[in-house]
Amino acid sequence: SALIYYTKGMNLSVGNDNVWYNRFRIKRCETLPLVALFNEALQEFESIRIDSLPAEDQTLAFDAGRQLYSDVASLYVDHPEHYRTWNDRSLEMQEQLIRHSEPNSQMCKFNQAEYLFMTGEYQKSRTMLMELFDELPPDSNLAARVANKLSRIAAYKDNVNEEMYYLAKSAMADIKSAT
Fold first, then answer.
1. Rounded to an integer, what distance in angstroms lies between the CA atom of residue 133 and that of residue 106?
2. Can you tell me the distance from the alpha carbon of 107 to that of 101, in angstroms, rounded to the nearest whole number?
């Protein structure tokens, strides 16, 4: 349903409000891969001139690009060369996202920890995420994302109990933060 709402929002804002049009468009690009429309998402996203957007929307675009390129990379896990290409693009978006985030904000800390995770620095990422998790309300969307990342780190360490614990925490936060 999010894809439908983003598309409708884009259509309603055409010619009326360029800021909202771009925001709906960016979020739509991030959502298209969820229904396997990768090519459409890539084509649309890469037509957006991120440098011409207001600062707040640049951050939104870098976050969407990071997710989009990560989703595309996941299609190529059995093809290392292609996986690396798309993962590198995701890392570039992640770096830009960190640069454009409010320093020391919870989102900036999360993005830094996620970058560490994406570059294989699991212990450093885990340390940052654990500190951040303790700061967050347990029913926030960010708590769900942090817990999910902690579960993935636990999986890499073959710690099944910790993986299940953080998956459950992620699910509970996700449900409680849903609107």
1. 10
2. 7
> Whole-prediction pTM value?
0.85
HEC profile of the chain: CHHHHHHHHHHHHCCCCHHHHHHHHHHHHHHHHHHCCHHHHHHHHHCCCHHHCCHHHHHHHHHHHHHHHHHHHHCCCCCHHHHHHHHHHHHHHHHHHHHCCCCCCHHHHHHHHHHHHHCCCHHHHHHHHHHHHHHCCCCCHHHHHHHHHHHHHHHHCCCHHHHHHHHHHHHHHHHHHCC
Q: How confident is the prediction along the chain (179 residues), in pLDDT tens digits per residue? A: 888 999 999 999 887 768 899 999 999 999 999 899 999 999 999 999 999 999 889 999 999 999 999 999 999 999 999 999 999 999 999 999 999 988 899 999 999 999 999 999 999 999 999 999 999 998 899 999 999 999 999 999 999 999 999 999 999 998 988 75
